[in-house]
């Protein structure tokens, strides 16, 4: 009876499996790193543009990130108006942000940082479409 030759795993198969694993691991790391900003596809609002002429921004959707300064007004049927401080390289800009009644489940607190997807309404106020703690 003859002996069968012991077959070894080809090294190219081993290198291929390692390469596939590294690609999957890199893709997962990239996915989780980008997951920190859910609004990354939305343009960031520049406060200087907003203060220069908010009327030119009406109807557009942006993202902002800032710290809640104060609650300015509240209407249970319509929503709540806050001031939010948005920081740039040069300074901090206080901006109005309206949280509609549909987002009342979000508990906004003073001196907490939030990221929001906002639309500039016809009167120049930022209306939150989505908001979350950052």
Structure in words:
- The chain is an alpha+beta fold and 134 residues long.
- It has a domain at 47-133: Nucleic acid-binding proteins (OB fold (Dihydrolipoamide Acetyltransferase, E2P)).
- The chain is 22% helix and 37% strand.
- The protein has 2 helices and 5 strands.
- It has helices at 11-34, 47-52, and strands at 61-75, 79-87, 92-100, 113-120, 126-133.
- The protein has a 5-stranded mixed β-barrel.
- Strand 2 (79-87) and strand 3 (92-100) form a beta hairpin.
- The longest helix is centred in the N-terminal third of the chain and has 24 residues, at 11-34.
- The chain is elongated, with a radius of gyration of 25 Å.
- The chain starts with 10 loop residues before the first helix and ends with a strand.
- 15% of the residues are buried.
- The model has no long low-confidence stretch (mean pLDDT 87).
């Amino acid at each position: 009876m003859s002996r069968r030759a012991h077959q070894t795993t080809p090294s190219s198969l081993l290198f291929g499996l390692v390469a596939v694993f590294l690609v999957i691991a890199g893709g997962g790391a990239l996915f989780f790193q980008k997951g920190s900003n859910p609004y990354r596809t939305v343009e960031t609002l520049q406060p200087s543009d907003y203060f220069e002429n908010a009327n030119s921004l009406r109807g557009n959707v942006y993202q902002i990130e800032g710290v809640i300064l104060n609650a300015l007004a509240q209407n249970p049927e319509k929503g709540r108006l806050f001031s939010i401080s948005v920081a740039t390289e040069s300074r901090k800009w206080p901006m109005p942000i309206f949280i509609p009644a549909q987002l009342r489940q979000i508990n906004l607190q003073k001196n907490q940082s939030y990221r929001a997807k906002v639309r500039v309404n016809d009167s120049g106020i930022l209306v939150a479409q989505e908001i979350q703690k950052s």
